[in-house]
Design a protein that fits this description.
The structure is a single chain. The protein is of the alpha/beta class. It has helices spanning 40-52, 123-129, 142-155, 176-187, and strands at residues 8-9, 14-19, 56-62, 102-106, 134-140, 159-168, 190-192, 197-198. It has one domain (8-198): Rossmann fold (3-Layer(aba) Sandwich). It contains four helices and eight strands. It has a six-stranded parallel sheet with strand order 4-3-2-5-6-7, with helices on both faces. A two-stranded parallel ribbon has the order 1-8. Helix 1 links the parallel strand 2 (14-19) and strand 3 (56-62). The two termini are 24 Å apart. The model has no long low-confidence stretch (mean pLDDT 97). Bound molecules: pyrazine-2-carboxylic acid and zinc ion. Zinc ion binds next to loops. Keywords: Hydrolase, Metal-binding, Pyridine nucleotide biosynthesis. InterPro entries: Isochorismatase-like_dom (IPR000868), Isochorismatase-like_sf (IPR036380), Isochorismatase_Nicotinamidase (IPR052347). GO terms for molecular function: metal ion binding; nicotinamidase activity. Pfam families: Isochorismatase (PF00857).
């Protein structure tokens, strides 16, 4: 497949975006993503790779008010999930974040859905200030937050590397995740697995 590389060396200006590893998106959660738990250990290894290099790690979280417009009760497409401050919105207890992690909360306003981690957040400003030129992205979900973050980030001028063994899709429609991957490659994102990160 186009967009595949054999190996990528970490360099200054790289950042890792750990996307929405929250209880509600994991098995047992209110919007559980099938096999979502399988990515956590691989992401932990990525986090170690980046921190060892002194590179920034950002953890994003879906952080909704209790009456968010995306919930069924408000006529939206999703069951209630990731309500700010609840256990469902907490990062998985299995995710090992460094003390230096930067946390970015998204979709925090009642009347606004935002799947991209750049939309309505300080993420772009934060990355620019840190001299970031390229983001590596993993987490949940392939077909919503990951896809939209890659799209926005590339539009903003960042290079994007998708860590394909660290993402899982909601797949509301079968193959949404596959289509999202094809779309990200079409946009110019590079796809690798964690073991292809060279230090
Ligand atoms: C997401 C579904 C609902 C995501 C957020 O961040 O991928 N997906 N809310
Ligand atoms: Zn949400």
């Amino acid at each position: 497949m186009q967009g595949q590389e054999s190996a990528i060396h970490l360099q200054t200006g790289d950042v890792l975006l750990v996307t929405d590893i929250q209880n509600d998106f994991l098995p047992g959660g209110s919007l559980a993503v099938a096999h979502g738990d399988e990515v956590v250990q691989i992401l932990n290894a990525c986090i170690v790779d980046f921190t060892r290099h002194g590179l920034m790690v950002v953890a994003t979280r879906d952080w909704h008010p209790i009456d968010h417009c995306s919930f069924h009760a408000q006529g939206g497409p999703w069951p209630q999930h990731c309500v700010a401050g609840t256990d469902g919105a907490r990062f998985s207890a299995s995710l090992v974040l460094p003390d230096s992690v930067v946390i970015v909360s998204k979709a925090t306003l009642r009347d606004k859905e935002a799947y991209s981690s750049f939309e309505g957040t300080e993420l772009d400003r934060l990355l620019r200030k840190a001299g970031v030129r390229r983001f590596f992205i993993g987490g949940l979900t392939t077909d919503y937050c990951v896809l939209n973050t890659v799209r926005d980030g590339m539009r903003l001028g960042y290079a994007a590397v998708v860590l394909t063994d660290t993402i899982r899709a909601v797949d509301v429609t079968p193959d949404d995740g596959e289509r999202a991957l094809v779309e990200m490659v079409r946009l110019g994102a590079v796809c690798i697995e964690r073991q292809q990160i060279m230090e």
